[in-house]
Specification:
about 110 residues, 3 strands, YefM-like fold, 6 helices, alpha+beta, 2 domains, elongated, single chain, about 55% helix
Length: about 110
Amino acid sequence: METLDVFSVRDLRTRSGDLLKDAELGQMSLITKHGRPAILALPFDRRLLDQGVHRALALSLFEGRQLTLAQAAKIAGLSLDGFIDLLGSLGLAAVDYPAEELAGELDIAL
């Protein structure tokens, strides 16, 4: 799971370069004020432009395994089927099972 870098408002004075570096790497960051989330910094990239904020956020958090498929669909404002279709259109897998685990799941299901 990819973690979010967390910056306090005070950190921004000395670590703004780190925040920018995260954005250039396509990584989201969280900025806090008095220990509480205040700002979610999303990279300004093609995905954000093409998909909009809600879908870009849902896709990033789903890819980072920070949200389930259903949670990501809800944030994206899509039905579960609609979110799965979005993943497919972007060439992203809706399910990420290791081959051994998938084989075990199939054995149980059959």
